[in-house]
Design a protein that fits this description.
Blueprint: E1 3-7, E2 12-17, E3 24-29, E4 32-37, E5 41-48, E6 51-54, E7 62-64, E8 69-72, E9 77-82, E10 86-93
Amino acid sequence: MFTVNTYFEGKVMSLSFQPDTERATVGVIAAGEYTFGTDSIETMTIICGHLEARLPGEEQWQSYGPGQSFVVGAGQRFSVRTGSDTSYLCRYSS
């Protein structure tokens, strides 16, 4: 079964699914800056577009484009920003 998730007044939307044993979402982020919290380990891979991420414990923003990924630990907060619509795949693990 699929679940639609909407955040930040519709500026971030994702579709949850479980392809194997780990849950995943595929989604779109509209231009802007957003802060997220994690419940589990998240691996975020950019599909189309570009974004910058400021990961826990880091002061500098890092740039990510198609095919590039970053990992955020469980119980953390991280920020992303983008100047244009960007799509992503997020995989969740324990």
